[in-house]
Amino acid sequence: MLTIEKLSEVIDIGKRESKNFLTKPYVDIFHQKEKICPNFKKDESTYNQFYQGDNFIVMKKLLEEGYKGKIDLIYIDPPFFTKTKYKGKIFLYHDEEEDIIEHFAYDDTWEEGFFSYLKMLCTRLFLMKELLSEKGTLYVHLDYRTVHYIKIIMDQIFGGENFLNEIIWAYKSGGASKRYYSKKHDTILVYTKGKEYIFNPQKEKSYNRGFKPYKFKGVKEYKDELGWYTLVNLKDVWQIDMVGRTSKERVGYDTQKPEKLLERIILTSSDEDSLIADFFAGSGTTGVVAEKLNRRWIMSDIGSLSSLTIAKRLIENNSTPFYIYKPNIRDERAGKLYLNEIILENDNGIKCLKIELDRYEIDLNKINIKDKDRELINEILTKNSLSLLDFIGIDPNYKDNLPNLRWQYYRNNKRNLDSIIYIKIDKVKEDQKIFIRYVDVFGNDNFMIYKIKNGKVIRWE
Ligand SMILES: C[S@@+](CC[C@H](N)C(=O)[O-])C[C@H]1O[C@@H](n2cnc3c(N)ncnc32)[C@H](O)[C@@H]1O
Predict the structure, then answer these.
(1) What CA–CA distance (Å, rounded) separates 321 from 94?
(2) What is the CATH number of the domain that holds 288?
(3) What ligand 1 atom has the least distance to the C-alpha of 54?
(4) 146 and 74, same domain (yes or no)
(5) Residues 284, 247: Cα–Cα separation, whole Å
(6) Residue 66 scores a pLDDT above 90
(7) Coil, strand or helix: which one is 249?
(8) CATH number where 402 lies
(9) With bands split at pLDDT 50, 70 and 90, how would you rate the model's confidence at 416?
(10) Which of 52, 301, 305, 309 to mutate to test the pocket of ligand 1 (most atoms within 8 A of CB)?
(11) By alpha-carbon position, which residue is closest to atom 10 of ligand 1?
């Protein structure tokens, strides 16, 4: 609970802090930049972007780089003030067994209380308004815990006249209580930047009474397995199932949202080639759906598990190329990968790079895992440490401090990474550098660089 005076203080602080922040010179912290190319796209200026970091800084960077007024649609699904620490599920496959451990994804506990939560969101909403184009729309996904406070804050920032809709997303999953009505919906607040906003009305089925045909003149009717229906403009109550345990979409990230939800939002409030952003990206649902609908995207998330989940999800979806930006060059929690050998081979005139992995080492004391899982991981580390590797990306022709991870290998479908990797390479030049990025199942990343000298591959960095 917060008094109305405190709420107005939040808005004042949000306004002041965002303004101060914008007037300060920007010092770039995203020193690690990599290109991931599951698919080909010529025009590099339209490559999509993922930032692992605090979205406050990400938004400042974007504003500095000319994105003011350039984004047509922003969807955010921030923490809900649930006072919970969220996890991601990690599936470990070893010795023909499968184990599931949980790893920290993000923290929705607020030591300094509700005021600090509102302040966090309020300052960021001011920056989002700056990034939105004149025809832009902002969707803020919340629930009963905070939505009524954020509505008042958003009225102040965007103007009550730009409040477009309150969407109710209703679902069946979750618990029930005998002491209150079961809580089965989230609320999405929709605000436009101005009056000339993009809005492509979408249709939904409306079943006729008794599921029988009306046969009204001029009304088109359709039939499916339930019965007769007409198509009407989408209403503001959306019944969409959550991403269930057995859903194909499921990536194991606790608060993952269904693609269907994002599909409606993106189709309605953006056009093909529009730029879309999600600054609390989680498992990356917004980017994945934007890809499918031919929109460009920018996403950010503070967590390393989110970053790993998003990269893999996009690669699996054969997405267009994207950049990943991170603040650090080498994470101090990083593990180390050891190779048995890395050599150049010539297979019937085709030049190949052969990389044979040996083992992976990591200091478990630096990782946020439960004590009960520690023993299991220790055992895996001694018996089959490579099964803790989740992703390997390789640039066989590394230049200009910008790895282009054209080759990507990742665990999926209950399969660990192969321990021998072959890469076809077109040209081999003296001093050519080979960049190898590797990420473990906890999201910790590291890299190594090799160099070609006198036809041999030697360790460089
Ligand atoms: C509810 S989840 C988003 C889930 C997402 N919509 C999906 O479909 O997977 C909220 C996300 O916000 C991220 N987050 C929280 N504070 C952040 C901040 N200051 N900057 C960037 N990301 C943040 C968390 O790491 C978490 O992944």
Answers:
(1) 32
(2) 3.40.50.150
(3) 20
(4) yes
(5) 16
(6) yes
(7) coil
(8) 2.60.40
(9) confident
(10) 301
(11) 78
